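In the current project phase, work has continued on tokenised descriptions of protein folds. One protein thus recorded appears below exactly as we store it.

——
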Amino acid sequence: MNYRSLTQDEIITLERQGCRATSWEAVKAAEPFSTEWIHRVRFGGQVRIGVLGGEAQPADGFAAPPGLYDSAIQDCVIGDGVLIAHVGFLSGYDIQEGARLLNIGSLEMTGESAFGQGTPIEVVNEAGGRTLPIYDRLTAQIAYMLVFYRYRSRFIERLSALIERYVQGQRGSRGIIGARSLIQNCVTLRDLRVGSHATLSGCQFLANGTIVSKPEAPTTLGAGVYARDFIVHTGSTIDGSAVLTSCFVGQGVKIARQYSAENSAFFANSEAMHGEACSIFAGPYTVSHHKSTLLIAGLFSFYNAGSGTNQSNHMYKLGPAHQGILERGCKTGSFSYLLWPAHIGPFTVVIGKHYSNFDTSEFPFSYITEEEGRSVLTPAMNLFTVGTIRDSQKWAQRDRRTDPDRLDEIQNDLFNPVILQKVIQAAERLMDLYLKSAKELEYVNYNGIAIKRLLLKRCAKYYEMAVSIGLGEALAAAWAAAGESLGFEELKARLAGARDDSTGRWLDLAGWMVPAAKVDEVIHGVEEGRFAEVEEVRQAIQAIAREYSADKWAWCRGALEKQFNKSWSEFTREDLVQILTDWKTNKVKLNNMILQDAQKEFDPHARIGFGLDAAGEEEKRMDFAAVRGGPDTNPFIQEVRRDSQRAEETVARLMGILQSME
């Protein structure tokens, strides 16, 4: 944009309107320029003013045409259509078109800054050693590898160097306030880079931070927020006097209601309210809503923290060096307590207080309870609860990311290869413990936790149900993708594929379900210098993630080959019939058990407190039905029934196709 010096008449008019400048020669304006839109402003240093005036821009009860009013402005570039009013001190910023700055104590640059980028945060281990440098393109997967692959020193060194190169490119001595953004009623703002269409309203103190925002995914920081050394990403909301120190906040995250966090990273769709976090890696959908809840020194994802949840990192002599791992889908009950170190398997519910260190990572879908001071594991029982199925359904529905450039890779399906491999191994482990343990034992101790011996065999059978369901669903999905109007041999050929790298061990990298061999490909690529920029690493991960469905089927096909002890080319029609029949039978059985669990919500005891002034049981029942409905109208129960019906219909259709195949 071309700027011109102000004329003497314009300077005289501005001074009559209460304006002053340390040097009017340093104040330049774009055409067309009118003094009408500048009143009571003090200019210092080099100031460039875009085109002002036009339609009034209302905000928080204040409406005025774009212009400069009652403010002190130093060394700034002011874009077209900008409104600045009642800003105590504005220094060192490029204010892009249409931005509105109202009633701000100070908004200034204090020198060169990277705007929070490159800030090292100590996640998972308070004592250090898992340092995560944050930047505005950070993903849950890159963060996971940086934090948990420290033993791959060459990889860490090279990836850290790529990140540092990116961070150096973000450094500058000028802040940015993005187009159409609104900043109002804030006290102290320093060294910020703010994206377009962002809203900062009532913030107390923000320093050294990047706020990524876009028209399709605006970001909001609200009343009383205090944040230092931070990055907040698109579509996120920080509000309610939240306090963040050295934190990364990913896409679609909500943090509010006086939540306090330090040295922590929150990835896509996480929610944090009322409580406290210290050195946590909050993978996608980590949720903590309650007061007196402390999350500390741990990895969480798809997690729900009950009120008063607490972990302790005090079992140390050399500092707070212990850590906890709660794998995907875990829940902790009200006032649960865990003593780190501990490692808990996927979809496990923790109830009570636990003072021993244990590793239950082999046993998904479990309960961990406190019984007479002893920590007890009940494997597989969380398979049959309403909560597990509801959680797996709601995650996809609650994805708040509206940014078309989604950074975190997330797979939501319940019976994925990571879970299925654990389920298969868990069934084998339980049977092994059952056969090798003495019959007179009430409990079998394994990896620091007790398991009732009488449950070992039964729980192994429950895990086998899950295997049948997962593999059957995978076959049906792969068959649908291949096409149903095929001959039998052609079908087998299409399903055979050539993805041997997917049939081995799978990993869950903070929501990204992926073959371990493919993670190694990325790591080796970094180690060997194949990536010139850190963004190329993200793109490589994205490319692998797009192959998830095919990779999943390849793994499931390999699992079926082991189960039937034959190669895929040797499978017969009868084998497919058995797989599909087992799927349908176990799917319906599982859903019926879930429905039994759901039915408890409509038992007579659930009506306690209903019909408060009712004269009899019928009125209590009617009040309950008016508020809660009944089992025949409940949406979740209806969906579970439809799920069983769909499985039966799918199997019947595929059976018919098999019979008619050449």
